[in-house]
Specification:
CATH class of the largest domain: Alpha Beta
Number of domains: 2
Oligomer: single chain
CATH topology of the largest domain: Rossmann fold
Strand order of the largest sheet: 3-4-2-5-6-1-7
Number of strands: 13
Helix content: 40-55%
Length: 432
Amino acid sequence: MTFKDLGLITPILRATDALGYESPTPIQEQSIPVLLEGHDLLGVAQTGTGKTAAFSIPIIQHLYKKNRNRKGKRIIKALVVTPTRELAIQIGDNFTAYAKFTGIRHTVIFGGVKQGRQTDALARGVDVLVATPGRLLDLIGQGYISLKDIEYFVLDEADQMLDMGFIHDIRRIINLLPSKRQSLFFSATMPGAIVKLSAKILGKNPKQVTIKPEQATAERVDQSVYFVSKKQKIKLLIHLIKTEGMRSLLVFSRTKHGANKIVRLLGKADITAEAIHGNKSQAARQRALGNFKDGSTKVLVATDIAARGIDVSALSHVINYDLPNVPETYVHRIGRTGRAGASGIAISFCMTDEKPYLRDIKKLIKQDIPVIDGHPYELDEAEEQKAMEEQKQTQKPKPNPRRRNNRNQNRSRNRNRGRNKGRGQNQGGKKE
């Protein structure tokens, strides 16, 4: 099947040709006809399957057909809500590419930067708005945005939206939308909370497109696990970078502080790396991502939230420096490599107290992950257990001498009050 077979208009076909697209991916092939017919859609697909084109192309076609004879200022007809700045920018870039020959205008808004340029773009008028929840509600509150004319609503990466605590923001946004609209709901996974949320957003009889089960990503990616102590993780990372010939490497850290520390320690080993996480400014995040995409930085260290916007077609390796405690997150992580049908390599470091996470991951993907034995920093479980016990001992709070002194003073005061009270009663008895 080709894009022409999907019934797309000539301006969009020109854009797909210019991009070198030959045939639609499965989610595009199944979703685009449904959306062109005007149905609501529940799309379940992992990262790297072409979801953005699946929802953006039909919206562009609808708007193009409706707006060809339009006069006056543009008003927002389509709203795409996504959890992170990086994803919003990525979706905006896709709208730019697919709408190149249509005249459809869009803008992207997100927090972490001054709002001036964003509000200027809104004032000029746009057809499509791509937004993160916080900045969207902020600008609605300030009167820059109205959702009363929305005809197409997309909630993208819904599972990550819930993980990040945006559920209340999403409910507020839904309440501001017209009841008559076409709604599109996309998620990589479908836990119970996501099913409930989709029921509130979609109409009574939405179409559903499910592309491959969750384990499909895992089947496409060459996975392995190294058992290693916490202290030796950085040494193993340096060893693998220097010996495995990694063209480009994305390293996942559980925390922002951990990401910064990894970058610092890699620097001491003469390995250039950059970090991307929520505490970085938008300019710093985009600069690090740009350096990674153009190959000037070979190693990028990221937290899960920041990594949702990373789309690098030639990414050769992913390393889970810290195993995630949510197994679905593992699927998202390794989905950064092996995108759009390509193969990739995913390596996980696992210390003793992360083994339950590993069991949950294997249960989800329904396959075993090969263990690499005999590496230079192999885990000694007894030594690791001892180190963990020592760490717990050092983390016990030390007694506060000031608090102890205050406690002793209070005891002394209470004893003195008791003695004085007794004396007063005795003196009273003598007077009687």
